[in-house]
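Troubleshooting entry. Yesterday's outputs looked truncated, so today I'm pasting the complete records for two proteins to confirm everything comes through intact. If either block looks cut off, that's the bug. Protein one:
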Amino acid sequence: MSPPILIFLSPLLLVLELVQLVLAERYLGVKQIERGFDPRTQEMSEGLAFCWSVGILTHWVWMVTLLPLRFGTGQVVCMLVTSMIGYAIRRGCALKWVLVTLTLEGAIRVGMHISLLSLAWKLL
């Protein structure tokens, strides 16, 4: 059995995940929290908001598309559940916990991407 071709998008999505973590730190970082500044009330540049949204949507479409292929199902389900739970927590928590939640979410998804890539590597 060879890995599905969609798995090879994982490195790109892994990079997007890491960029998202950096952007989250920039916009929701400790310095912002210490100042009492809530960046959620400020507008993000249109280009950045578009790229961020497309990255998130691409990641979701990729995960849902991988489910019926029966490759790395555990990792994909873990990423989907982590994203859903993280979103639910972020919607209702205080600003200082948003960064913590985003970081934990990102770390889990990064780990699952690495696991998927190692699984694909073993099958090559």
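Protein two, checking that the full record survives here as well:
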Amino acid sequence: MSFHRYRTFIPDWEAFSRALLRPEPRTFRVRRTDAVSADELRERLEAQGFGLTPSPHLPGVFRVDREPFPLSETLEHWLGLLYIQQAATALAPPLLAPRPGEGLLDLCAAPGGKSAHLADLMGDRGLIVAVDSSEPRLRALSGNLSRLTLSSVVAVKSRGESIPTGAGFHRVLVDVPCSGEGRSRRGDLPRVASPGDLKRLPRLQEALLRKAVEVTVPGGRILYVTCTLAPEENEAVVDRVLRDGPVSLVPLAPDVPHAPGLTRFGDLHFLPELAGACRIHPHHLDSGGLFLALLEREGGPPVEEALDLPGWTPLDPSPPEVLAPWARNSPALQGRGWVERGEMVRMLGLPAWPLEEWLREMPGLPVIHTGLRAVSREKRGGPRPSVDLLRWIGADAPPGAFPSLSLSREEWLGLLSGRELRRRDAPDGAVALMLDGQVLGRGRLRKGRVLAELSPPRADWLRQVLAQSGPGPRD
């Protein structure tokens, strides 16, 4: 099989073919946070020698034209101000249009780029259950969420088609496993769906989409996504589910170059409304290929609040007493959910979740990641806020709320390399260790000596980042 079978529905075939021959540009998305604007982040990266071009179609997405050293080794990446991803994939989460306070499901989530984007779009005020069958990929997702300091995501290991059905969701993202033809520009040889792919994968894709329909509440929406061109994995799957209901297709017309969905392909005939699906081909955004179809669940009055979702149970919305008064009184921490796992109190984006119902239906279900690490109940030294919480609160913390110590880049490099660092301008005790007004870690002063409390892997990573991403352009 080859891409030539698609000539019937790709009229700009020459542009499509040329795009497949070019390496795919490296791109990233700027996080939607108060920490930095897209323009400010661009200035910071360009000052280090990066050449960047904003996407003409996707706000907050930049192409990397010059990369003097890996973008992943910048302090901006380490601080979670950006997320490296394929440009086309930044289109999907906004089309699902999540709203603060909603409960979402990401059925095939790892390594977490779309879950993180959904959380950003909700202002980290919602709850996303991210499901994946691969524990190593979920561990990578957990690391990404910690770097991004997001509280709105819970990650669970399960096959998406096998998740419990007792809990409902406002919106579901179904980014299914596929033959990956849209990622052809990333390798030396094109990815072309094989006959075996087209026999095996649509069965799994349909099972995942039907599960999404089953757990979506009336009025809720489902976004079906693949990164392949094959109609057998795209329109054909959605067509079969639409015919059985209770869902309808919501036409998509994103303000980017795209093609409509197909209503026929060879001997296959699809419902006329499939023209309202969206196809992104590699030449449209100079990126990868993508198929998107938005469905709406029918059958009753919509469910507005997360606490009214079936199978969701309330969590304590008040910051726990184990937090220091300054943290308990922070407006940013009010109205969230709080749970304890081991010696760590964790913060969620909503005071409700479906995990109790899921664990009742599937005892022993592995929960890999739970919100944001907030405070540890340590046997020595008492409860202490985590680095993630200190970074998350950031500028919202009242002045002097938690002792802090600002270090220069040279002092940080020395400290992380094992050299002794002494400071007499701060009292002994726990401190937030800063660089240029940003929390990089938690530490302690003991008899004037500065001790960094970072795990060895995280300390090694930060040392590499600080050594690599010093100020000033590079050749």
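Both blocks look complete. Sanity check on protein two: The radius of gyration is 24 Å.
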